[in-house]
Automatic annotation (TrEMBL):
This is MmgE/PrpD family protein. Residues 19-260 form the MmgE/PrpD N-terminal domain. Belongs to the PrpD family. Residues 299-484 form the MmgE/PrpD C-terminal domain. It comes from the Bacteria.
């Protein structure tokens, strides 16, 4: 890997494009390196994973609405939409929108956490939609997805968006554009313009994950995927983009992230300490392996809760009756405390009538239910009746989080053996006894007690799609997905998963 410094330059510097981050990203995308076998196998795992969570969510309201919008844009020879028979095709940007929403709705697919947060599996819907439309092969798709994962994860390693309250899709849209560039074998110049356009149009803010969290949490990455498809289309037609998009005087880094300019009391630009980001990218000819550093979810909830759910299952064996609990303190990382813990100061995270999207970002609720039930279910654990249970509400409101510097350090560690997303939990009982335990990574994590392998992804698919798909359709999809490298040009439509006739709900009417 090579580290590339990124900082703001004045316009008069005329920064050569060869020194711009977007050009270097485009160079990685244009580099036709082979996909290594273990990377290809992991990409197949994540395609299965995405289909699992998408079908499980296929009739939830946000997904129904997104699908209805896509159905308003049919296109002969286009892309497929989850749940709809593969013979029906739609414009790729709208298929990316519908499928991206379905994948993201349950918050249960893969994750990578470092300087920022990400769900790199969000790259799959837009790249696959274009691959189907442009009749690419399974090997083309593998190369493209290796790029999408690589670019998003490398950006997430280096550039923190959340400290500036910017949503993580600002890394996703450029990575999806780069992946599409790889898919189509575009020249570096074209990918360069597409990546810049993608970043320019995808900067949005973290209010989508704050307060009353709405369905936009699922729509946001789908929107980024749609924008990426459109950005590449424009670039292929010869259109340019704002440049340099990362390093320019009025760029994203300058005014949205930790750049160098701000206005003084007279409205003039002044200079303060410039910030250098160092973005790691593969050297020319170096394999794209970033997907191997990411991990999926066993439980349908924010990733920082994965280890805590597993820990709750273990600790409940030592708590005969949760009514005996006086209080619970979760000692954890900065992110867990301030985003899904009591440090967020969101009253909605303690509200039994909160939306599912809010509850899956409340570690207090999640730990209470996991401790009481000893199981986690993507529907039952969030049901309004379950959230409103009196004993759960009592326990839930006894739980607080505290930032622990050591857990924060481990959260940001560059050493994979130290990297952790867990916590130490103290349960104080009314009789004065204290139960303490800790867990660094979830069981399903590559360093966890039961790392996910192919059989676990298949099991997850069967559990989440049970009762929704016919056995024949489920078996057909799993067979095709695992045979991905051998799919010929024009056969990627077989990666779609269709529900039985009449099983899809229809959305409310809109404009499309």
């Amino acid at each position: 890997m090579q580290k590339h410094p990124v900082k703001v330059y004045p316009s008069k510097a005329l920064l050569p494009r060869e020194e711009q981050l977007a050009w270097k990203i485009a160079g990685v995308a244009a580099d036709r390196v082979p996909v290594q076998k273990d990377v290809a196998e992991m990409i197949i795992n994540r395609i299965i994973d995405n289909a699992s969570v998408a079908i499980a969510a296929v009739n939830r309201r946000p997904v129904v609405s997104a699908r209805a919008m896509a159905l308003g844009h049919p296109r002969k020879g286009g892309a497929t939409v989850f749940g709809v028979p593969a013979a029906k095709r739609f414009s790729p940007e709208w298929a990316a929108w519908a499928n991206g929403t379905a994948v993201r709705e349950l918050d249960m697919h893969d994750t990578f956490l470092a300087a920022d947060y990400s769900h790199p599996g969000d790259n799959i819907p837009p790249i696959l939609a274009v691959a189907q439309t442009m009749e690419r092969s399974g090997r083309d798709l593998l190369r493209a997805l290796a790029t999408g994962y690589e670019i998003q994860i490398d950006l997430v390693r280096a550039i923190c968006l959340h400290e500036h309250k910017v949503d993580h899709i600002a890394h996703l849209c450029p990575s999806a554009a780069a992946g599409i560039g790889t898919l189509l074998g575009l020249k570096q110049e074209t990918i360069f313009q597409a990546v810049q356009q993608a970043l320019h149009v995808s900067v949005s803010f973290r209010q989508s994950r704050k307060g009353e969290i709405s369905s936009w949490k699922a729509y946001a990455p789908a929107h980024a995927g749609k924008l990426a498809v459109e950005a590449v289309d424009r670039a292929m037609r010869g259109e340019g983009a704002p440049s340099p998009i990362y390093e320019g005087e009025d760029s994203v880094v300058a005014w949205v992230l930790s750049g160098r300019t701000q206005a003084d009391s007279k409205g003039r630009n002044t200079v303060y300490d410039p910030v250098y980001y160092e973005v790691p990218l593969p050297a020319p000819g170096e394999p794209k392996r970033a997907i191997m550093d990411s991990y999926t979810k066993e439980h349908s909830a924010e990733y920082q809760s994965q280890a805590l759910i597993d820990l709750a299952f273990r600790m409940r064996e030592r708590v005969p009756d949760t009514d005996d609990i006086e209080r619970v303190v979760i000692h954890t990382s900065h992110h867990t405390h301030y985003v899904i813990g009591t440090g967020a100061n969101d009253p909605q995270k303690m509200d039994p009538k909160a939306s599912r999207e809010t509850l899956d970002h409340s570690i207090m609720y999640i730990f209470a239910v996991a401790l009481q039930d000893g199981r986690w279910h993507h529907v039952d654990s969030y049901a309004p009746k379950r959230a409103g249970r009196a004993d759960t509400v009592r326990l839930w409101h006894k739980i607080e989080t505290r930032e622990d510097p050591e857990w924060t350090r481990r959260y940001h560690s560059r050493d994979p053996d130290e990297l952790a997303f867990g916590a130490r939990i103290e349960i104080f009982l009314k009789d004065g006894a204290t139960i303490t335990d800790e867990m660094a990574v979830a069981n399903a994590h590559p360093l966890g007690a039961k790392p996910f392998g192919r059989e676990d992804y298949i099991r997850k698919f069967r559990v989440l799609t049970d009762g929704l798909l016919s056995a024949r359709e489920a078996n057909r999809f799993l067979e095709v997905a695992q045979d991905l490298p051998r799919l010929a040009a024009g056969e990627l439509g077989e990666l779609n998963v269709a529900l039985p006739n009449g099983a899809l709900l229809e959305g409310k009417p809109g404009i499309f």
